[in-house]
Amino acid sequence: MNSVTGTALLAIILCVLISSTTATPVLGIMSHPLNSTHEYIAASYVRWLQMGGARAVRIPFTSNSTELDLLRKNLNGVLFMGGSQHLPESAEYLYSEVVSNYDLEDASTLTPFWGICLGFQWLLQMASEDTHILSTGFDAENISLPLKFTDAGEQARMYNQNGVIDTVSLLKANNVTLNNHGAGVFPADFAASEKLDEFDLLSTNEDRQGVEFVSSFEHQKFPIYGTQYHPEKSNFEYGSTDPTKNDSPYESISHTIEAVRYSFELSALLVSEAAKTGARFDPASSGLRTIIEENDGILVRTSFEESYVWEV
Ligand SMILES: *[C@@H]1O[C@H](CO)[C@@H](O)[C@H](O)[C@H]1NC(C)=O
Ligand SMILES: *[C@@H]1O[C@H](CO)[C@@H](O)[C@H](O)[C@H]1NC(C)=O
Ligand SMILES: *[C@@H]1O[C@H](CO)[C@@H](O)[C@H](O)[C@H]1NC(C)=O
Ligand SMILES: *[C@@H]1O[C@H](CO)[C@@H](O)[C@H](O)[C@H]1NC(C)=O
Predict the structure, then answer these.
(1) Which reaction does it catalyse (predicted)?
(2) 25-311, superfamily in CATH?
């Protein structure tokens, strides 16, 4: 064997080694009821995970404990999306089973949670063990805002990913975080909850009336993150499919390079935390349906660019 062939062989062997030791994280996204016969997941959440290098599996809204036990053993992370549903028992069961087994000495137990908009609110309701931590009446639909950071926020894992992009400065200087909520959490209620002592409030914002709300948080030690705003929209929603508006944008979504960058940073954080839990997804022995793309059709609808739907 000459040295060129030898080098090529070595490169091939190295490639095989590298690819076989790099598991693609698989995260679950809980679907929400669409109507009496179907549940859906907006495709933007699936694509947001894919952007960070992961794949997605559906967690049905009405999953029972047996199904959730199977899912949690196969998933590297969980994403709770936006929407308008009450906090379901399935989310509470999954959260408490995973979080009560967290062990900082054992990375395989540290399945991350991320909540966006309603999902952020669910996480705070579960973590505070108080559904009333949520207030209503905020005037914060359809508005993109620069973040107001707390001291903890400037140092947070969420906003200090890689030292290449200064996400904190980017998010201070640009109106890129899209808010779309009437419910929310007052900073004072967050601070008053003893159960949230180990969570850091990272940023706040003011609604159109000057009323302040919590716009992001993370747990001090565990991989639990929430954004009241929508990082997935800048890259994957255009707010342009409302037929009554002649296809002109109806949501104030920023698609600037700053918006696209911060969205990627947050996705990459979630997926890198998920990857640390190790290879898990095993459709053959679990009997779970595989990745969303491989199995399900896409439905175009009015309030999202596209959604995946399932008959229930
Ligand atoms: C629910 O929505 C799905 C997807 O649009 C549709 O196929 C189905 O007919 C709807 N069901 C009802 C009861 O409206
Ligand atoms: C959960 O649902 C499955 C059907 O998907 C059923 O076989 C199982 O008995 C249910 N388990 C519980 C604890 O209700
Ligand atoms: C940008 O954010 C500021 C708050 O810092 C807000 O007053 C303003 O309306 C926002 N502009 C747009 C175009 O959303
Ligand atoms: C959302 O905000 C954009 C920009 O301010 C505006 O053009 C659009 O009409 C708004 N949409 C709704 C539904 O209010």
Answers:
(1) (6S)-5,6,7,8-tetrahydrofolyl-(gamma-L-Glu)(n) + (n-1) H2O = (6S)-5,6,7,8-tetrahydrofolate + (n-1) L-glutamate
(2) Class I glutamine amidotransferase (GATase) domain (3.40.50.880)
